[in-house]
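Dear Dr. K.,

Following up on our conversation at the group meeting, I've run the structure prediction for NAD-dependent epimerase/dehydratase family protein from Dyella tabacisoli. I'm pasting the input sequence below exactly as I used it, so you can double-check it against your construct before we proceed with anything downstream. Let me know if the numbering doesn't match what you have in your notebook.
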Amino acid sequence: MNTQKTVLVIGANGGIGHESCVALLRHGWRVRALVRTPRANAQTGIEWFTGDAMNAADVLRAAEGVELIVHAVNPPGYRDWDKLVLPMLDNTIAAAKAVGARIVLPGTIYNFGPDAFPALTEHSPQHPLTRKGEIRVEMERRLAAAAETGAPALILRCGDFFGPQPGNNWLSQGLIKQGAPVRTVQYPGPSEIGHAWAYLPDVGETLARLVDRAGELGRFEVFHFGGYWLDGHEMTATIRRSANNPSIALGRFPWWLVTLAAPFMQTLRELRKMRYLWRAPIKLDDRKLLAFLGAKPYTPIDDAMRATLAGNGCL
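The predicted structure tokens came back this morning:
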């Protein structure tokens, strides 16, 4: 009898979706992926489904027979969040209830406001300053409600993502330039302020370790992924060591340019609204996660950064 468990990853072409697929395969799961367009160099060992997370029938078709759904899909470039994010999650919840699956959501710090800074626990108040943050709060509320009505849920909140796969994240699109050796690190906040960072392969591995022990989880669980806490000086020093280039300079992110261009680009308008997250120290308290796992799941920062720079064509 085949006892292998099956997981559906929605948004497998994205950074967290891809790393979740890789980690779950490594942990012995049978992995399905729902994407609009499979990659030409798609990960082997995955059963690919072509469909749209906005189409309830597509999600249900891909979810038939699965025990777990990883909801890792996001609109690209911060666009149309208010129109797309909640309907996509509703389709995942409906499919999970229909097939009896647990939902996993990779969470963020966007649903917190300054009243919760600097140390964020699983129970910190959620008073975001942006519409995107309000949507994140509503996503978690809907998952908590779904957990009481037939779809257990797990949320792993993380800091800003980075990793070997170039993607829509602060490190590869803000602090450095893809495809060229790093000359300057453009830090988005005051250089003395620390910020939470999450290495994508570690996030995928942590998700896999948590769901491997699903029997020990409650119907609705939230964990914080601590990752790395680095200020501008520490981030620049890490990149210097990883690139073997001590001459890399610490600079400032050009918020003035974002302000000038924001009226003409929705992505930049949304990016500008998140600036408050760089004006105060933000750290995720991961004591609950470490107590559950029994060990830190974090790659040494220099190894993580070296792999990231190589994947982004910066070495």
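Two things stood out to me. The first strand starts at residue 6 and ends at 10. The chain has two domains: 6-163+199-229+281-299, 170-192+231-278.

Best regards,
J.T.
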